[in-house]
Write a structure and sequence with these properties.
By secondary structure, this protein is an alpha/beta fold. The chain is built from 3 helices and 9 strands; from the N terminus they run βαβαβββαββββ. 22% of the residues lie in helices and 36% in strands. A hairpin with a 5-residue loop joins strand 3 and strand 4.
Length: 178
Amino acid sequence: MAMEAMRKSVLYSREAIRERVLELGEEVSRAYEDRNLVVIGVLKGAFMFMADLVRALRIPCRIDFIRVASYGSGTETSGRIELTKDIETDITGKDVLIVEDIIDTGLTLTYLVENLRARNPRSLKVCAFLDKKLRRKVPFEADFVGFTMDDGFVIGYGLDFDEQGRFLPDVCVLNAGK
């Protein structure tokens, strides 16, 4: 189904997103004061959030990207996680912040944390734009969270449905039916 045919409603406006990202930038800056931070964005969904977050930081940082695939073309996770692009930065002994668009089942971030922790960073934390706690299949808590929601499929601000809707400046919930 084409995105234009789907009903959607705004969950978080661009103004609310901008304000919350600035707050997160301050929280992260305080947590990493006087440290050299490596920010690792999880492609593709986190690219807009990461760009805004990095610009909201008061501290210098290096950036890198990692990509995993865990979703098929529907609204449910496949449960199978595959690393499709690794980082290019040696994170041994460094402070690392994973930036993710959404925590859903917790499977992807659990995989990423275990994968990156094995590379012996000095510290490893997670900053997620959205947290859907009710959908957890494994326990997982992020260190920094933009917004929380119960359930629903969201698009916009980098989040997609079958590669559609990433461009939307607001985060919208896709509504069932037409």
